[in-house]
Amino acid sequence: MEKTVILKFTKETWDKPVIHGLSRNCELVFSILEARVFPRKEAYAIMSLEGAEEEFSKAMDYLKECKVVIQEVPDHIKRDDDSCVSCGTCTAVCPTDALFTEGPELYVTLDPEKCIACGNCVQVCTVKCIELLVI
């Protein structure tokens, strides 16, 4: 099983070795797709987790014990193709090139497999045709 999750750390958890504990306690392959620490000592990490279902459940239990807020990212982003004007602003802020231009018309295309749900595109979209889908 493979899932992408957003882990939200609070003032109480942002500086704890949670990811280290996750790697030691659970047999999962994981990639940190993006992580940020904010000035008020809050942080988040977007991670891809892959492994057996029981190991995934074990990891979720461990993270909850550590008081980390977990959000699963089922579909990443949704884009209204009819509203998109292909201005390309979103492509400039996409860290994984999930949004890119193609063809002589420079039409903006989304590759959902590359999307890590960082939300950068949502923030810069001038016509508001992109929305982040998180639980």
Keywords:
alpha+beta; Alpha-Beta Plaits; 2 domains; 4-stranded antiparallel beta sheet; two-stranded antiparallel ribbon; 4 helices
A few lines on this structure:
The protein has 135 residues and is of the alpha+beta class.
What does this structure look like?
With 135 residues, this protein is an alpha+beta fold. The chain has 2 domains: 2-72, Alpha-Beta Plaits (2-Layer Sandwich); 77-132, Alpha-Beta Plaits, CATH 3.30.70.20. It contains 4 helices and 8 strands; from the N terminus they run βαββαββαββαβ. It has helices at residues 18-25, 53-65, 89-93, 120-124; strands spanning 2-9, 29-38, 42-50, 69-72, 77-79, 99-102, 107-110, 130-132. The strands form 3 sheets. Strands 2-3-1-4 form a 4-stranded antiparallel sheet, covered by helices on one side. The chain has a two-stranded antiparallel ribbon with strand order 5-8. A hairpin with a 4-residue loop joins strand 6 and strand 7. Helix 1 runs antiparallel to helix 2 (53-65). The longest helix is centred in the middle third of the chain and has 13 residues, at 53-65. The two termini are 18 Å apart.
Separation, N- and C-terminal Cα atoms = 18 Å
Mean pLDDT figure? 87
Query: How do the helices and strands follow one another from N- to C-terminus?
Result: EHEEHEEHEEHE
- Whole-number radius of gyration? 17 Å
What's the CATH H-level superfamily name of the largest domain?
ACT domain
* Strands, total number: 8
The spatial strand order of the largest sheet comes to 2-3-1-4
The biggest sheet, with number of strands, parallel, antiparallel or mixed sense and barrel status, is: 4 strands, antiparallel
**CATH level-1 class of the largest domain:** Alpha Beta
User: What general form does the structure show?
Assistant: elongated
Query: Approximately how much helix is present in the residues?
Result: 10-25%
Any idea of the CATH topology of the largest domain? Alpha-Beta Plaits
The residue ranges in which pLDDT falls below 50 over 5 or more consecutive positions are: none
What's the CATH architecture of the largest domain? 2-Layer Sandwich
Count of the separate structural domains: 2
Distinct helical segment count? 4
Classification by helices and strands = alpha+beta
Strand content: 25-35%
